[in-house]
Structure formats: structure tokens, C-alpha cells
Design goal:
The chain is of the alpha+beta class. About 30% of the residues lie in helices and about 40% in strands. Helix 2 packs antiparallel against helix 3. It comes from Methylomonas denitrificans.
């Protein structure tokens, strides 16, 4: 049966529409695959130039400030705290009166001891008279006994009386010494009711208040704290992976949250051998002293520490990702040996270089390369973007490297 012209025209339009949709699908697919990111292993080969720069190798840590010299002033006797004569921030001198505890109980004990001593001394005076009288009787009876003027029994009685009188006198003397010792202790406790500064310093903390009853029978209650603020100490916590790289007298600098661009300089005074374990992380305390005569540093401030392992200015530098396998170091060679790929007119050549200071990003070239040499570096798209953001990644002078 012959087809009508209208039916043939409809089929033609459907064929063209299907072809058009197919072309659109192919174009969309091509665009989609073109926009897909390349795999991480599809790296491009870049080159980098050896340039001059400053480099500083350091160990970083967090720290807290505390006074180098301080003392907790406490009470050695129990009683009510009557008066505190200084306030936080006051500068005091050694021997200055800081606080007063109610002295009445201790004054009463001293008075009782003194009265007891007077009583015993009076008894001793009377007993010493008895000793003198007993001695006279003994001497007289001894002469009479030789002439048989008295019996042996009377002589023995006088001898007993003399010895007994002397013993009683010695007992009274011992009692006086015992009470005198008690008196000395009570006088000492009475003196402890006045609390004096043991050193020059600044009152930095107050633990007790006026009117508070202090109990010194079990523990020594702290009233206030004195500190010398001219020299502060940073207690830095260094990870066990880094602490073996530190040493005494190593230069250190640090910043605080509010210091802006200011750096404080110091040196390592001591590395404490006993660690602290925080959340299964082993940390060692490293003490660093710093001058604080301008009083800008305060107790409890947080610090960012930089322990300087080495420093070099205007030396040849290359990125660490330009370093190849580590090589065996030749005799008398300095630094560490690595293999790098150098771009020359003859092509890429392997070369061994000596590396000195090294950070996480850059390394100092000691031998094997000159400024201007170009090295082959395998870096992906992300690395190239980082280099562009970092102005090709070379450090400037005075910038800490982590």
C-alpha cells in the first residue's frame, strides 16, 4: 500500500531529531570527561631553581610562664588571721611584716611558762639552802664521829639527808630547764604569729583572708605568694621525638598571644628528666629563663616556643621535594648526602649533593649545587598552586619555619 507524503515527512523529522539528540549527548559527555580532575599519580614534571635565602631549623613547642623565684608564705601556727598588711601587686622587702595571727593564746602560754619557772626557781633557792644546812650537819657529825661524840647511825642519817637535799635540788634544776625549753617553744610560736617576708619580691597571689581561721596542725596553710618578677621562666612541653635534639644553653625565642611581632629571647636552663603523660603523649618540661624587667610578661601566659637548632643566612636553598634517595656520606663530608636530578643542556643528570640545615619544606645546600642550577621536581597540580601562592616557596628573612 503506498505511503502518504505526510507520513514520510514525519519519519524524516524523527530521524533528524534523534540525530540531534545524539550529537548533544556526545557533546555533554566530552565536556564532562574534560572537566574531571586528573588522578593524583598523573604528575607533571616541573623544575625549580636553586636560590639564596635564609633558613632556620628549630623545634617548636607550647609553654607557660611562671616566676623563676617564688615562695608560698604560710602559717606555722593555728589561729585567726587578724591582719594582712600588703595587697596583690605590692613590692615588699625581706623582713617586712606581711600578716598577723591572733597572738593571745600563745602570749598566755608564754606567761604561764614564765610563772612556772619563777615558782621552780623559788623552790630551788629554798632547796639549795637545805643543801647548805645538810652539808654543815654532815661535816660536824663526821668530826664528832672521829671523837666518838655521836653514834654511827646519827652520822649515816646526816649523810642521807645531805644526799637527798642535793638530789632534790638537781630535780628542781632539771624541771626549770624543761619548762625553759617549753617557754622557748611557746615564744617561738608567739613569734610565728607575725609573718615576715623571706625575700624581696612582689605579692602575686593571696590565698587567705582576714578573719579566716588557719589550721596548721596537719598542713601548712598558705596565706600569700611572693615572687621575683625581674626574671621569668617558661615551662615548655617538648615531645619525646624532639627533646633529644635540645641541649642546655641552646638559644630560644618565643612569642605570646598579645605580643604582636615582639619576640623574647632566652636560653635553655634545664631539661627535666621526668616526663608528663597527657592523653598518651609523652612530654618533657624544658625550662627557659627570660629577662622581664619591663614587666610585660605575667604568670600563666601561653607562649609559642622556637628552639633554634641551627640558622643560616643567604645560603643556597632547594625544596625538600627535590631531594631523591639518601646516599652514603663520603669520608670527611659535611651534612647528609642526597641524590637530585639536575637539568643540563645534555638533559637530566643524577647528582649527589650535601645537605645541611633542613626544615619540613626547605634544605640548605652545602656542596654539589650552585645558585641558578635548575632541578627536576615531581609535583602535582596542588603543589604548583602552593608554590604560586608562596612566591615559589622560598622563605624570607626572620620568618619562623615549622
Amino acid at each position: 500500500m503506498p505511503q502518504s507524503p505526510a507520513s514520510s515527512s514525519n519519519r524524516q523529522r524523527l530521524r533528524w531529531l534523534a540525530l540531534f539528540l545524539l550529537l548533544i549527548a556526545v557533546a555533554v559527555g566530552a565536556w564532562y570527561f574534560a572537566k574531571q580532575p586528573k588522578r593524583a599519580d598523573q604528575d607533571k614534571t616541573d623544575s625549580i631553581e636553586v636560590t639564596l635565602g635564609d633558613l632556620e631549623e628549630n623545634v617548636t613547642a607550647q609553654g607557660k610562664l611562671e616566676p623563676k623565684e617564688y615562695v608560698d608564705v604560710g602559717a606555722q601556727v593555728t589561729g585567726q588571721l587578724q591582719k594582712i598588711y600588703v595587697k596583690i601587686g605590692d613590692n615588699v622587702q625581706a623582713g617586712e611584716l606581711l600578716a598577723q595571727i591572733d597572738p593571745r593564746i600563745y602570749a598566755a602560754r608564754v606567761a604561764a611558762d614564765e610563772a612556772n619557772i619563777k615558782n621552780l626557781q623559788a623552790q630551788l633557792t629554798g632547796q639549795q639552802a637545805q643543801v647548805v644546812f645538810a652539808q654543815q650537819q654532815y661535816d660536824r657529825n663526821r668530826e664528832l664521829l672521829q671523837s666518838k661524840g655521836i653514834s654511827v647511825q646519827d652520822f649515816q642519817n646526816s649523810e642521807f639527808t645531805l644526799k637527798n637535799a642535793k638530789a632534790t635540788a638537781e630535780s628542781l634544776q632539771a624541771q626549770i630547764e624543761q619548762v625553759q625549753s617549753t617557754l622557748n617553744g611557746d615564744k617561738t610560736n608567739l613569734g610565728f604569729t607575725k609573718i615576715f617576708a623571706s625575700m624581696d619580691g612582689t605579692m602575686v597571689d593571696q590565698k587567705a583572708r582576714e578573719g579566716q581561721t588557719l589550721n596548721a596542725n596537719q598542713t601548712t596553710p598558705t596565706i600569700l605568694q611572693l615572687a621575683k618578677l625581674d626574671t621569668m621562666t617558661v615551662r615548655a612541653q617538648v615531645a619525646e621525638a624532639d627533646v633529644m635534639r635540645l641541649r642546655s644553653d641552646m638559644p630560644v625565642y618565643f612569642t605570646t598571644l598579645g605580643s604582636g611581632e615582639r619576640r623574647w629571647q632566652g636560653t635553655v636552663r634545664q631539661i627535666l628528666p621526668t616526663p608528663e603523660v597527657i592523653n598518651n603523649v609523652v612530654l618533657y618540661n624544658v625550662l627557659v629563663d627570660v629577662d622581664n624587667r619591663d614587666r610585660q610578661l605575667m604568670t600563666g601566659m601561653s607562649t609559642q616556643m622556637f628552639f633554634v637548632l641551627g640558622k643560616a643566612e643567604q645560603v643556597p636553598l632547594i625544596p625538600v621535594n627535590a631531594l631523591g634517595p639518601r646516599q652514603r656520606k663520603a669520608d670527611n663530608a659535611s651534612g647528609h648526602a642526597y641524590q637530585v636530578k639536575v637539568l643540563t643542556e645534555q638533559g637530566v643528570q643524577d647528582k649527589t649533593v650535601q645537605i645541611g640545615l633542613r626544615t619540613r619544606r626547605f634544605a640548605q645546600v652545602l656542596e654539589g649545587l650552585a645558585v641558578g642550577d635548575r632541578l627536576q621536581v615531581n609535583s602535582g597540580t596542588d603543589d604548583k598552586a602552593k608554590n604560586r601562592r608562596n612566591n615559589q616557596g622560598y622563605p624570607g628573612a626572620g620568618v619562623p619555619r615549622l
